[in-house]
Amino acid sequence: MTRVAIVGAGPAGIAAANVLVAHGLAPVLIDEGLRPGGQIYRQPRPGLRLDIMALLGAEAENYRRTHATFANLKDRIDYRPYTLAWAIDDGTLHTMQDSAAATVDFDAIILATGAADRTLPIQGWTLPGVFTLGGAQVLLKEHGCLIGRRIVFCGSSPLLYLAATQYRAMGAEIVAILDTTPLVAKIAATGALMAAPGTFARGLGYMAALRRAGVAIHHGVALGAFEGTVGVEAVRFADRHGEEIALSCDAVAVGFGLKPETQLAELAGVELCYDPVFRQWLPHADADGRCGGNVFVAGDGATVGGAQAAALTGMLAACAALEDLKVAVVGIDRARLRRQVARLRRFQRGLARAFALPVDALRTLDDGVMVCRCEGVSAGELRASIRAEFGPSEVNRLKAITRCGMGRCQGRFCGLAAAELTAQTLSVPLEAVGRLRAQPPVKPLPIGIRRAD
Amino acid sequence: MNGRLVRAVVPDGLPLRILVDGAEVEAYTGDSLLVAVLAARHALRRHEFSDEARAGFCLMGACTTVVAAGMHVVTAGAPGFPQS
Predict the structure, then answer these.
(1) Does the distance separating the beta carbons of A117 and B8 come in below 8 Å?
(2) Taking Cα atoms as reference points, which of A400, A205, A103, A374 lies closest to residue B47?
(3) pLDDT by residue (tens digit) across A306-338?
(4) Which of B4, B34, B73 should one mutate to test binding to chain A, selecting the residue with the greatest count of A CBs within 10 A?
(5) CA-to-CA distance for B21 and A415, rounded, in angstroms?
C-alpha cells in the first residue's frame, strides 16, 4: 500500500491526513506533542478544568473543528504521539518515541512542522522569568499555568495583544505591552492587512479592549534590558519620545513573530530561498507545497501564514502528493484553495511589514550580552571573531569558530541574530552571510536512545 | 506553592512527589518536569558554561518529559554533578 508520512499534527498535518484518508490512504502521522493540535490548537492536558473555548475566543470554532476532524481520523491512520522526527536521509524518516528509535519509510512525505518564536538577544534575556511569547501561550493552554504574576509582554508581534488578553482573563496582571514597532508602520500596512479584514478587526479589538481595561500599551519602544539578580525584576526601555522608563515585573514574555521550522525539509534535500519581507529562508515549493522529489511542505513550516492558511495548505499538499502518486484527486476545488491561501499570505506579509523585526537594535547591543544561550557565546565574541583577519564572512564558519548555534537548540534562537550581526559587522546584506545549516538530530536525543523492539 | 509559574487552574487529583536534587517537589499527574519544578521553584538548573540560573525559555522544545511518582531528578549545578 502507498505510504505517506506526515510530520506534525497541527492544523496543517491534520488537514493533510484528512484528505489522504478520504482518498483511501492510511498515513503515518508523527506528532512531537502528547496530544494532537500543534502549538496553536494545543489541548489542555487531561484532568485540567481549563475552559479552552473561552480562552480561544474567536479561534474556538476552528479549534473545535480541527479536533473533531482528528477524532474522526484517529482509527484510520497510524498516529504516533510524543514522537520526535529527528532526521531524514535517503527517503527514510528517523523518529524517537520514549527513547526508542524507529524508522519510517515513505513514498511521499508532508512536512507540517510549524514554527517557533523568533527571538533576538536583549540584555538580560537569559534571566529566569523571561520566556518566549508563544511558549507563554502554550504553557497556559496545555497546563493552565501563567509564567508569573506581574507580566510585561514585549517584542514585535500581533500575538502580543492576544496573549496579553488571554493572560489577563486568567488572572495575570499585565504590567504593560511594549511593542517595538511604531504605530505608523501598522497604519502603513493597513492595505495588505485588509486581505483578511476579520482577523485584522479582531486584532484591533484586542488592542482596544486592553486599553479600555487600563493596560499600558507603548508603540515604537526600544527595549533596553531585562533586569534582576536571580530572576527578572524589571524591564527597562525607551518610549517613542526617547524617555527611559523602568517597569517592575516578575515575568516577561518576548517574541518577534515566528520562524518556520525548516530543518527537516532541508535534511530532505529541499532548497531554501531567502525572503526579504520575512528576512527568513523558506523552503522552495510551488503553490501546492510541492518541493520536488517526494517532499511536500504545508503550514507555518512552509511560510508563516497562520492556522487557517495552515489547514488549507495541508489540504493542497495532500492533493499534490496524491497526484504525484497517481491517485486521482476528487471533491476538492484546488483553485479556490490556492486563491484563499494567496490572500491569507498577503495578509501575513502585511503583518511582517507592520511588525517588522527591530534589527537595528542589534547594532547597539552590548558586547557582554549572550547571543547563543546554549553555548554562552557573547555578542562581543562574535564581533571580534568576524572582525579578525581572515575572519568568517558566513555563519556556518562563524559557528565552527565560536560554537554559536552549536548547542541544544541548534541555532533556533541565536541563528538569526548571529546572521544579522555578521551582516551588520561586514556591511553586507543579510542573505550574503547565509544561514545555519540544519544538522541531524534536529532536536536533542537522550544518550540512552535504543532501537525500538 | 511558591514558585515561578502560577497555576491559574489547579489540576484535578492529589499531588504526587518527585525528588529534585534530593529535595521533595510536589507535582501533579500530567505535569511536564519543567512545569512541576518551576511551579515549586524559581529556576530549573545552572547553565553549563556560566554561573547563571536558568528556568526554561521556549517552553516548546525538547523539555517535555512527563513526571512520574517517585522520579528522582539531578540537575546541573547540584552537588556532585560532573562539572564541565
Answers:
(1) no
(2) A374
(3) 999 999 999 999 999 999 999 999 999 999 999
(4) B4
(5) 33
